[in-house]
Known about the structure:
Radius of gyration: 11 Å
Amino acid sequence: MTDPTDVINWRRIDATTTLSGQPTEAQFAAIKTLGVSDVINLGPHSNRGIE
């Protein structure tokens, strides 16, 4: 399992916990293949992300 290098601020805390900045749609698909199954969005509702 290789952690992504293109997701901003990607950090693996342990085998089941990671954190990062806002992934793009393509990056969401890529991290899903790593076993990521749940995402908690802590960004404000007004944040539109990278468009």
